[in-house]
């Protein structure tokens, strides 16, 4: 029993310390019960002076529950004591359908359990400095899901987007726990012996292509949208698609022919078009029939002594055959596949058909797309995009979560260590959009829960990203709507100030490891719902591997000591001594 209540304010009480009956020496952060005849109020010890303690009110304890907030304060005559074991069970979590999060260092390492539903059916944010233990803690939490039991999470779908390959060691032996468990790595590192990232180009939507090409203007949206329509039509490879290519080229040539430019400039522009986009009927090497002779199309653009095309009429008559303004073209194309090169060709047709390259105000935007798509298609990142047949979203998701032996993988690690931040962000956005589309299409809502675990989340979930151009941010959309469909975000970062504030506000669970930087602390206090000064102060003194956890998983903020991951992730510091020191041979 503690001493008597000396004063009561709106949020706290000052209690005398009864030195004769109080045997606990370290009282800070312990929970206290104010017991009246008709109610029990729960509080937490904030500070200690010489003979008194300050206790902040948290809520009311009932027989088997805790209710946050207070209507009535305790009376001055209330008995004050440290919380007992039975009352502590109300705060330390359920005993069924639960997961062991860690232990309480304040109460002799009593286990702290959380409801599986409350933890994994809500968005979660994990913040902490480098070396604070957050990666170890997250690995331990996931390892605690996959235990030896008769009831196993066989249908779990955890996709870890791992910036530096830290999680591979922690889960590589998952099947040794239970043969029904499987772990898989998909990597962007071409030198490692794992499955290589391979995204079907036919699954890329307008927003994905705009992100990959780093589009910045509204005019580029129309260009890419038209190119996607063209590439699907061209992929049919039927007579109509072929006729439409000729129609586009013939119109582009005609439009250039009748511009007020010199003949040499007109010829150069037409040669540029036909060198990049051509058909057997319209190319520089096509043989064009004349009166009594034939000649190659390029030779029809020879300039005479008067500065005109000597074969202007032959050119005009020939290309008119391929222009059909009255025909209604069918752009519908289902179940077609194509490559980045095919998309590049379609973009070239788009730019020439709409005369973007002849429009000074749009030329820079058009050339930016053209150059970036060519770079993507011909350089290293193009290896990550497949055109090996048409595949649906359902089939692709099943493919990426199935290992080489045909077993379902509960954990898939996307190792993005070998690509730059911009490309990695585009990849994660693609998967976010695809998962969102898939989960929303399910006939039975939320029956295929997907967890996107984003390590170094600040690389992807950025403030205002995409909003100016696309009108929305995919991670904001997932944060606001994904929970209803079973698409959940787990954000892990050491730089919370770089995260999208709207996404953080939708997180229902928080694990805050030690953070020192004032800007990060200020940002968390401002952005995190129900983040009190008390929680901010608590995390400042945490040891590595210990966090302040609150949200839907606990009734009140709890200090949690995470158990060590076994096996651990590869996120520890390098060993300087062992890597530096060499023992000299003294006999030399």
- Give start-end ranges of low-pLDDT stretches: none
Beta-sheet strand percentage? 15-25%
Order of strands, main sheet, comes to 13-12-18-11-19-20-10-21-22-23
Q: Could you tell me the mean pLDDT?
A: 90
In the residues, how many domains can be counted? 3
Query: Main beta sheet: strand number and arrangement?
Result: 10 strands, mixed
Sheet/helix structural class: alpha/beta
* Text of the CATH class of the largest domain: Alpha Beta
**What's the helical proportion of residues?**
25-40%
User: What is the number of helical segments per DSSP (H or I, 4+ residues)?
Assistant: 19
The first-to-last residue Cα distance is 73 Å
Task: Identify the overall geometry.
Answer: elongated
- What is the fold-level CATH name, i.e. the topology of the largest domain? Rossmann fold
CATH superfamily placement of the largest domain: P-loop containing nucleotide triphosphate hydrolases
Number of strands: 23
CATH architecture of the largest domain: 3-Layer(aba) Sandwich
Q: Please give the radius of gyration in angstroms.
A: 33 Å
Q: Which terms would index this structure?
A:
3 domains; 7-stranded antiparallel sheet; 588 residues; alpha/beta; Rossmann fold; 23 strands
Can you characterise this structure?
The protein is α/β, with parallel strands linked by helices. It has three domains: 87 residues; 254 residues, P-loop containing nucleotide triphosphate hydrolases (Rossmann fold, 3-Layer(aba) Sandwich); 176 residues, no CATH class. The chain is 34% helix and 19% strand. It contains 19 helices and 23 strands. The strands form five sheets. Strands 13-12-18-11-19-20-10-21-22-23 form a ten-stranded mixed beta sheet, sandwiched between helices. Strands 1, 2, 3, 4, 5, 6 and 7 form a seven-stranded antiparallel beta sheet that branches. β15 and β16 form a beta hairpin. α6 packs across α10. The longest helix is centred in the last third of the chain and has 21 residues. It is elongated and about 120 Å long. The relative contact order is 0.15.
């Amino acid at each position: 029993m503690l001493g008597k209540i000396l004063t009561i304010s709106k949020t706290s009480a000052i209690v005398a310390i009864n030195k004769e009956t109080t045997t606990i020496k370290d009282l800070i952060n312990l929970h206290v019960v104010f017991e009246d005849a008709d109610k029990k109020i729960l509080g937490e010890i904030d500070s200690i002076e010489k003979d008194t303690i300050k206790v902040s009110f948290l809520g009311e304890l009932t027989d088997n529950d805790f209710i946050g907030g207070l209507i009535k304060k305790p009376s001055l005559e209330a008995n004050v004591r440290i919380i007992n074991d039975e009352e502590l069970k109300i705060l330390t979590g359920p005993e069924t359908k639960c997961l062991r999060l860690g232990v309480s260092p304040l109460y002799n390492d009593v286990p702290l359990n959380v409801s599986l539903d409350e933890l994994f059916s809500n968005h979660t944010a994990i913040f902490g400095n480098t070396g604070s233990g957050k990666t170890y803690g997250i690995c331990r939490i996931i390892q605690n899901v996959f235990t030896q039991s008769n009831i196993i999470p066989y249908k779990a779908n955890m996709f870890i987007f791992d910036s530096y390959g830290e999680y591979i060691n922690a889960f590589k032996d998952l099947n040794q726990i239970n043969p029904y468990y499987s772990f898989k790595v998909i990597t962007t590192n071409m030198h490692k012996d794992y499955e290589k990232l391979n995204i079907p180009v036919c699954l890329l939507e307008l927003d994905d292509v705009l992100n990959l090409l780093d589009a910045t203007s509204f005019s580029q949206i129309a260009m890419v949208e038209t190119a996607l329509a063209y590439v699907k039509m061209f992929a049919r490879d039927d007579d109509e698609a072929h006729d439409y290519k000729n129609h586009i080229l013939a119109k582009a040539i005609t439009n250039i022919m009748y511009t007020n430019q010199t003949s040499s400039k007109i010829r150069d522009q037409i040669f540029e078009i036909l060198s990049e986009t051509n058909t057997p009927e319209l190319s520089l090497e096509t043989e064009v029939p004349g009166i009594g002779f034939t000649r190659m199309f390029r030779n029809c653009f020879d300039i005479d002594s008067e500065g005109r095309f000597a074969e202007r009429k032959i050119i005009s008559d020939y290309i008119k055959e391929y222009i059909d303004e009255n025909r209604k073209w069918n752009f519908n194309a289902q179940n077609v596949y194509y490559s980045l090169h095919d998309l590049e060709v379609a973009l070239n047709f788009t730019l020439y058909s709409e005369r973007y390259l002849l429009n000074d105000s749009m030329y820079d935007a058009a050339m930016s797309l053209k150059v970036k798509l060519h770079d993507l298609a011909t350089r290293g990142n193009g290896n990550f995009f497949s055109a090996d047949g048409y595949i649906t979203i359902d089939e692709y998701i099943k493919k990426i979560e199935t290992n080489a032996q045909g077993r379902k993988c509960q954990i898939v690690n996307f190792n993005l260590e070998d690509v730059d931040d911009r490309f990695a962000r585009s990849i994660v956005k693609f998967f976010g959009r695809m998962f969102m589309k898939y989960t929303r299409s399910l006939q039975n809502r939320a029956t295929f829960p997907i967890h996107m675990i984003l390590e170094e989340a600040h690389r992807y979930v950025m403030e205002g990203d995409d909003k100016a151009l696309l009108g929305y941010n995919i991670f904001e959309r997932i944060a606001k709507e994904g929970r209803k469909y079973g698409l959940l975000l787990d954000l892990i970062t050491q730089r919370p100030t770089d995260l999208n504030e709207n996404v953080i506000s939708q997180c229902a669970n928080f694990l805050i490891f030690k953070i020192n930087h004032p800007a990060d602390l200020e940002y968390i206090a401002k952005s995190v719902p129900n983040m009190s000064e008390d929680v901010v102060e608590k995390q400042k003194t945490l040891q590595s591997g210990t966090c302040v956890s609150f949200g839907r998983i606990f009734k009140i903020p709890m200090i949690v000591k995470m158990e060590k991951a076994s096996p651990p992730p590869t996120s520890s510091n390098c060993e300087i001594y062992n890597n530096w020191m060499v023992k000299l041979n003294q006999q030399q």
